[in-house]
Write a structure and sequence with these properties.
This protein is of the alpha+beta class. Helix content is 18%, strand content 36%. Strand 12 and strand 13 (197-199) form a beta hairpin. The model has no long low-confidence stretch (mean pLDDT 93). Bound molecules: fe (ii) ion.
Length: 200
């Protein structure tokens, strides 16, 4: 089990994050409602997504450490589609979505951004993340970096970070996914050959 944290900027550069030592140990058991309340406090306290994510990362680590049940909640990939999503939390008009996602090895996503801050924690399996930058219209996208995430690793994204994910290995990739409010006008998928962006 690895425990690295990563952060991807709005220009799609990925950097390792030094985990802050926290003197406070979380209340145990650290239940979903407590996690949601603390998340709410962070979002109210900061407008800046970098600051939000810096505080959200250790919170998610505490929650995942205290919630081994989540692996059991993760739905197996649908045999036809090859993936499945279970919403752990999604309230109407509330800027947060928490999902458990599973997908089969070999599946590859489009090149996309999320138009929202995001956090993905790998619960099981291995996931390759490629990071891309668009070029002038008609020019191919440039892959600037890539990393392979292992179980226990966590990655955060700024809203304009552009990535592409691929499920590796022999077993489904299971992940915990947390997203802020999506700006659908700013969420795109990209053509690797032409850098053309289309609504996603
Ligand atoms: Fe994504």
């Amino acid at each position: 089990m690895s425990n690295h944290d990563w952060h991807v900027s709005n220009s799609s550069t990925c950097q390792a994050v030094v985990q802050e030592e926290t003197s406070e140990s979380p209340v145990s058991p650290y239940r979903l409602y407590r996690f949601l309340t603390q998340l709410d406090d962070i979002l109210l306290a900061h407008e800046n997504d970098e600051l939000r994510l810096a505080e959200i990362r250790p919170l998610v680590r505490s929650f995942l450490n205290e919630s081994p049940w989540m692996m059991m909640q993760c739905p197996p990939p649908d045999p036809k589609r090859g993936w499945a999503v279970s919403k752990l939390y999604d309230d109407t008009d509330y800027p947060l979505t928490i999902q458990l996602v599973s997908w089969n090895p070999g599946m590859l996503s489009s090149i996309h951004n999320h138009g929202a801050w995001g956090l993905v924690a790998i619960l099981d399996g291995q996931e390759r993340n490629r990071f891309w930058q668009p070029q002038e219209a008609g020019e191919p996208m440039v892959q600037v970096q890539e990393t392979i995430l292992q179980p226990g690793e966590l990655i955060t994204f700024m809203p304009d970070a552009i990535h592409q994910v691929e499920a590796l290995g022999d077993e489904p990739v299971l992940s915990f996914n947390l997203y802020g409010e999506t700006d659908y006008q700013a969420r795109f998928q990209y053509d690797a050959k032409t850098s053309e962006a289309s609504s996603f």
